[in-house]
Each structure stands twice: as structure tokens, then as C-alpha cells.
Amino acid sequence: MPQTEPIRVERRYPAAPLVGVGVVVINAQGEILLAQRSKPPRQGEWSLPGGLIDLGEQLVDAAKREVWEECAVEIEIGGLIAPFEPIVRDKAGRIEYHYVILDFWAIYVRGEAVAQDDASAVAWATTEALEQFHLLPDTKQMILRGYVRWQENH
Hints:
With 154 residues, the protein is an alpha+beta fold. It has helices at 59-71, 137-153, and strands at residues 18-26, 32-37, 46-47, 50-52, 74-84, 87-89, 95-110, 119-125. It is built from two helices and eight strands; from the N terminus they run ββββαββββα.
């Protein structure tokens, strides 16, 4: 694997949008892997595993790395779902966070899902159980889109 370097930029009040990945990981039972965020923004909220790409890193490699770092599972990327562009403004209207996230769907390969790195907890959830995780509407929509792609290719 090529040498990469974590980017050294301010996440809060960035000078430019930050590029990251998110991954809808689905196991053989059709359950989706969720990670509870341990850092801002959205600390304590459930979401998809993911994070920023490293300098010199390919998107697919970043997706695999982030899932491993946060949840300790190996995955096989199925494909791209869609981009997602969250922009968070502070009370004064200044851009506090700006990300460009490319969301992928992936198949679980191996490993016991445990919280690591930027996750305080992880869980496997059926599509019917997603409501109990209080996901943001955009996150839930991305999960359902990824689930449809998985069904079409499974």
C-alpha cells in the first residue's frame, strides 16, 4: 500500500472544504454497521463509519482504513453511493465545519465490530431498527440507498 500522511488542517473554521469518506457496511444478515461519534461535530450521535482521507490516499483505501480504525472490521467496497456535503455554521453565520464526503456501500468480510479510534460505540442494526439510533435524515437516507445497492448486487 502506498505511503500516506494524515492531513494537518483545522477541522473547525477550515480554510477550505475537507474531503472524507463514509461507508454503509452490510453483513450477510443484511445488518448495517453504525458508529457512535466520540468527537465533534456530532459527538455522541450515531452515524456511518468514516473520516478524512489522508494525503496521497485513494478514496477506496481511505474507506477501508476508516472502517478498520473505527470498528475493527475488514470490508470489500461495493461501490459509490453519492456525495454528501455537510456545512455547519456558527451563531454568527461563519462556516464552522465544511466537509465533502463520498459515501460508499461495502460488504463485511471479517472481524468483530468493536469501537476504536473516533468511535465510542458500534452496533449492527437492521433497517427496521434504524429509528432507535436517532440518525440524521441525510444519514438514514444514505444508509437506505446503500442498502438498495447491496440488495441489487447481492
